[in-house]
Design goal:
- The strands form three sheets. The protein has a seven-stranded mixed beta sheet with strand order 2-8-7-6-5-3-4, with helices on both faces.
- Helix content is about 40%, strand content about 15%.
- Strand 12 and strand 13 form a beta hairpin.
- It starts with a helix and ends in a 10-residue tail after the last helix.
- By secondary structure, it is of the alpha/beta class.
- It has two domains: about 110 residues, Aspartate Aminotransferase, domain 1, CATH 3.90.1150; about 220 residues, Aspartate Aminotransferase, domain 2 (3-Layer(aba) Sandwich), CATH 3.40.640.
- It is globular and about 60 Å long.
Amino acid sequence: MSLRDVVNPHIRGLRPYEPCKPIEEVERELGISGSVKLASNENPLGPSPRALEVLAASAEEIHRYPDGACFALRARLAEHLSVDPAQLVFGCGGDEVLELLAKTFLAPGDRVVMPWPSFAMYPIVAKGMGAEPVFVPLTAEMDHDLPGIAAAASEGAKMIFLCNPNNPTGTSFGAEALDRFMAEIPDDVVVVLDEAYFEYVRRSDFPDTPSLIAKRPATLALRTFSKIYGLAGLRVGYGISSPELIGYLDRARHPFNVNRLAEAAALAALGDDEHAQRTREMNASGIEYLTPELEALGYRVWPSDANFILVETGPGYADALLRRGVIVRPLGGFGLDNHIRVSVGTSEENEKLIKSLQAIEQQGPIASGAPS
């Protein structure tokens, strides 16, 4: 008998998440320098200066265990969101909160309904518990097919994932559409609203999820400090839900799952409204610059409520850009072979992307799937 024979079948069949290579490795492999990374939806302004100050001061305390309840962060975030502190759960990034949801609610054979393409971790956490992911394709406009998701859920779903704004498309839906959807979903189905890009949303009718949770306790909103707060490397995510649901997640949560430095930095960043506003303004300006420039090159660009944009270029463009020192996210793994996801960068980074694409186009068409 081999090790493969004793591994749980639902783990054996998983395909691991494939992260982008770090800039240093890309440059070493290709013999280039001055690369820019526009692949991981990170904050191009970096972390809040207040967070950096706190990190330096907190480093002397890393021999102490963190506050396992995130007491200070919980209190400040609850005030910021106008929710009860008992409505919050924290994790090592939003991914851990997804794992807690799967661990708490899913068992082998359970059905989990999700849009596709969407965040790659949804099927991974579902399959990791032996549950069955049920994929509902996006519409032709790359929007959630909410009626289709509701129909799929009516066939015995245990959990539903909705990513709003959606990753990797940047599209979003409003409060009225969500209300119609929720009216079709039984109260005992756990609905997870992944709002990792919530702070970037520009539409005025975005759902007020804390209010929705008050009316429907089996709902959780997932948010993060990785994006607008610029703390992706420290990994702090959180869920907002009813105290009952949060209580079950806390039963499954490991103690000290958010480290001391991450807690301190998140608390400091939460109070830095100026940095968050600068980030929002830079992001909006970047989208307004990139969209017409990309369209002028003949590409289709989808409207985005996030800090990235979906671009239909044709095949081979991610590799071609890589060789020019611009790292973007290829989307072949999502069934979008002709598309790339581009994170909004600084003005200099955005301009490098456009100049690189202009140079690629001047060389002539890219052969299907071939690097250039």
